[in-house]
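Notes continue from the previous slide.

Worked example: a multi-chain complex. Inputs as given:
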Amino acid sequence: MAPNPLANWEKIGNSFYRKLAVYDAIFEDDVELENYLVAGAPYGGAIALYRDETKPLRLRDGQGSRSTIDVYSCSGQRINRINWEQATIRGLGWSDKEELLIVSEDGTVRRYLGLDGEFTSFSLGNGAEEYGVRACQFWSSGLVALLSNNQLIVVSKYDEPRPRLLAPCPEGEVSSWALIPPAHTLSRSVEVLLAVDKTVFLIDSTEAEDKILQNGPFKHISVSPDGLSVALFTAEGKLWVVSNDFQSKTSEYDSKSRVPPSTVTWCGKEAVILAWEDEIHLVGLNGVASKYYYDGRVHVIPEFDGVRLVTNETCEFLHKVAGVTEEIFRLGSSSPASVLLDSVDQLEKKSPRADENIQRIRSSLPSAVDTCIKAAGHEYDGFWQKRLLKAASFGKSVLDLYNSDEFVEMTEKLRVLKSLRDYRIGLPLTYEQYLRLTPDGLIERLINRHEYLLAIRISEYLQIPADRVYVHWASQKVKVSTVDDEAVCKLIVQRLDGKPGISFEAIAQAAYNEGRSHLATQLLNHEPRGGKQVPLLLNMEEDELALDKAIDSGDDDLVNYVLLHLKSKLPLASFFRLINTRPMASALVETAARGEDTELLKDLFYQDDRPIDGANVLLAEALRESDRARQTEKLQLASRLLSDSKEPTVVLNQKLVTEASQLLKTQEALDKDLADNSEYLGLSLNETVYRLVRAGYGKRAQKIQSEFKMPEKTFWWLRLRALVAKRDWGELEEIAKVKKSPIGWESFYNEILGAGNTKLASGFVPKCTHLPPAERIEMWVKCGMIVKAGEEAQKAKDLNTLELLRTKASGPAATEIERMINQLKPKK
Amino acid sequence: MAPFSGSDADHFKDKARRDLLTLLESVRGKKNLVISQELAGPVGLFVKFSELQDYGVHRVFYLENANIDSSQRNVVFLVRGEKARHVRIVAEQIKRLQNNGNVEHEFSIFFSPRRTLVGNAVLEEAGITGDVNIAEFPLLFMPLEQDILSLELDDSFSDLYLHKDPGCIFHAAKALMSIQQRHGYFPRIVGKGDNARRLTDLLLRMRKELDAEESSGLADPSARGLLPSPNVENLIIIDRDVDFGTALLTQLTYEGLIDEYVGIKNNQADVDTSIVGPASAPQPQESSKTPQQHGPPKRKVQLDASDQLFNQLRDANFAIVGDILNKVARRLENEYEARHTAKTTGELREFVNRLPTYQVEHQSLRTHTNLAEEIMRLTRSETFRKTLEVQQNNAAGADSTYQHETIEELIARDVPLKTVLRLLCLESCMSGGLRPRDLENFKRQIVQAYGHQHLLTFWALEKMELLQPRSPATTMLLPTSGAQAGTKTNYGYLRKNLRLVIEEVSEKDPNDISYVYSGFAPLSVRLVQCVLQKSYMVSLIKGGTPAAALNNASTMSPGWLGFEDVVKSARGATFSIVQKGDDKAVRARQTLSGNSGTKTVYVFFLGGITFTEIAALRFIAAQEAPKRKIVICTTSIISGDRMMEAAIEKGSFGPANASK
């Protein structure tokens, strides 16, 4: 017999609401719901029950004062019991990933990963400890805590929690508050509505804005799931729905109750739920309401598309009837989709009306099929799902062209949903919720409930990766199995063989956390990703192995990290021993130490017996040293380090280091004698000589030359350049009187010419006897002495050049050249 | 998988831009951006300052200047996560701002290219992990040109060869993986050098890890294990230390010479305004980012393909740059003069429409003429002539001891230390080390001439194996047999067997890559030719006419085949690895796509590439044009000077010279 699809429909204003009974007989009778605080995870997730401490406790044996938090599935199966011995609980909530969050009065937040009772914790700080947390509210990925001094603390992600304060709020009695999740605010970060005294403040990270209302105090505030409207419950028992800017009131409802409801929350985007102990008001647009009464305490768990109502006996879902469903099932509906559904009936009766129906809606048949498919998704009952799909199937068989993808997907989704809604699993997802949760999220939830088989089946069915399921399974196996390590490892490896993407590192981590480090090492060997193994190996104190694996991975960061870790942990000698045989490691240690820790370097080089390297470190230090005495000391130390060896390069280095300090000493003396302030100190030897010559201290320069055994050539070059720079032509002329120059005279010519003294330069041309005449001619020309050039050419009997010269010459020079040409011209 | 649309360069550029702007957007409101200097240049390649402003950046600070102030509540740091030192500076600056007190700051750190464990540890140590938002900015390859992808790691050379820090190999592997993820696996990886081998091992390993991470996605075959790419031919990896010699030579192409004398960084050169004139009006956005500098006023000249004239000049030998410039000048003149002959209004309109282009071209012509003149002046100097002479003798394999006198003279004449060291290193590389006595002699002279701190410089050069004493073993290795493989590149042998020296190459109308060094072919690029242009190489070695051989180059043997013996006498590992995919899938795809036309060859220079080598590779690319496309990848652009800078000790004794 087909159930009536209209059962439990309730008309509120223009729309219909439907209350579905999802599960029966949820809680044992001895769970007295009225004494519990209840928080439910979104998307049909788990429900956490915590005994309300403000309620009197009936003394029973055994239970005493030990408080616990019980986690149930929606169908009333207890998943876990968490013992609670910490401070009073001030906030109980869930994240989107079904992580239970418990905030205690002293500002400690515990985040339970999965449903197994593993947790991490962090503190809210910011004065939470002194003032105490008064209440907490949660959104999909964060929470806001209200302290007793009206300060608000936000945590916007749990992976790296960074509690921060919102703008300070005004003094006064906070009668109620609500948060607006980041997705719905202009600032893209969370904001809070705080009802203080008669008005409401909107608080974000920078300021508290007074919305200037007069009708407070508001006993409840609730923000709609789309963030567009706000529901306010006044002390007079009135419910107001206002726009989110508090500028316009869209509806008002008088509950006629002096007692404020225990819960005010939204049911979808358009209706508000008011819940007292055993009474629910569903208030739609324009203040039209419908009332439901219960035998016992009823708890309301909001979802984005409706609310779950939990009592001892039942778990119900109250939501707005979807448009497509309404279009088909509404009494007297004659929409194409509803006609299509009807034709299925006719078809079964083998009535020709089936065909007539189809002909009647022919033009809108595709959309009718679509509607039927969508409606099937919104239907909870198997009978009607089938019926609607059948109608769709019938409809599309008539169509020539129809893309069946949606139809196929819908059947798949419905199958998945059906398997989830089974009371043994207890995940009463609606179609919309499933879309938002995504298949990945769904698998996550199944894993949390240890429903591995179903998770794998669904993964395969939906063709999504199942590696997480396997890994979780194996980790769990490691935790609970009691057989020896080899057997467990073998079992796991066998089962997971050939499955792609398995992170053995995660399994090994689980094993290590259980204290089975041997098993962990064994499992790690199966991990293909080298880098992944390292942190765990470090934790396990497998230092050497960790270092090797890090080096294998080629990731310098990983190696550095391991080295950093080892350096602080091991005695220096063993640290050196460890890196000694690993070139990459020692190279990285050296590089890092060069910048920061030269002492370590010295130790390292000493240990390795590398005197040159050691001396170089000292040399580098000496360079950075501004204090002369210490600089000298460092240089001496370096020199001493090198003095032990007989190797020629070392000997040379030692000599040069000594020379360096010697030079510095000489320069100091020069500074004292010749300069007002330090002028010579720190120059190179060549520069010292150059400057001395330029400053006119030729004698001293010569002395230094011999003292430091500077090559003669070098000295000549330096003197030449310095004198030219000084424009000391006299001295240069003086030098020119010498017979021989070790650097030739051409260089003199060039440098002096470069300085612009052609006259002096020309004096050097005749001295360049070894040059070919052509070049000498060029040299004369550059000095502007054409005649001289001509003479040179004449000597070389180069007629062509003379001809060329003639074009350049002018005045008397020209005639002179002409004369030479004539002389040279072969006499006919 | 739609990897075939758009070039890699555009793809990476676009991605980097989007990534950065998204990150900036995630910080609400106005913010100050603190950026480390080595990232500022690269970031400038793909995003303009005005664009940053649109995304709320109020002012930009350099991390190194440590002058970030409290003018904005939001402060964003952009640094390399691999550099612990930089992270430490960031931590210091954050703490300083926090202690300053009057503004409650909101800090964000973007780590590029990744967040590191060491960086985490540093922040943890400083106690600020909880106070900052941390994000990653995965900046790997930066396209300098359509055919050049660079990691722009300035320190990669010193890291690799001096510090032996393999960080940039890992970085390179990650970057190459990003190419593989876009196109599929390189069907073959050919390489030369030990670091190249290491890079390849990492690539293979990462592929395995990626395969392991890929999950059982049955529905989407593209996500499930990549296949060898159908449109990539191979990846050729050349380790810089295979051929230090080439990079030490003075580059003789136009772009190379600009790099030698002015320095090109991130496609920009800072040129004295006395040479090229002050910046023209339409380029203010660049200058607003740079802080006021001291010294002579500089102007940033953008050097990339957007400048058509430069594009024409960049890879030409400098000897013919003058000619080209003259020709262009004449053409412009003629076209401009055409306005007088314009008769109809249509012609006039056309002329007016083209006016802006003329102006741009004219501007560029002026800039490059001035630049070329300046370079001409430098190349005419005596020291340049002498330097080049020593270099060419070394490259040609003449007895190097005859050059020593010249080098000594250069030292005494106080030419830049870099120049002298380059000559010595070149000799050491080309002839397997200096005689110990000579080396000692030079060491003494250089230390005396340039300061005793350069003992450290020598030590560094030796560690990099750039400047070494000739050991008895290496003397034996010198000419003839190529059998002794491994530790050193035997230029003597390779010069002959790969025809590195070609005297008669024409600079004007080149027929061989040796034109880039006026007669010396870069060994590194010859190696690439051994893989890509086998028949050309064969005929070149045998002495046939090279031009004819080009045409029948199609019958190819893969990898080093045919040249294994020759290649062995270059330093380091030699390898050629085929990356196989699932056979069935490969065949299926082959039938689907057919044998598509152009195949891409990626050439990766690990440790840096010079502009001349780029020019040589482009020369090859032009020859292979319809069949192949060559994309040049590198860790950074390098030059002989930069190699020396890696080694040269910058400190000096005494307070007088502290600032010098």
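Summary box: The longest helix of chain A spans residues 648-674. Chain A has 32 helices and 29 strands.
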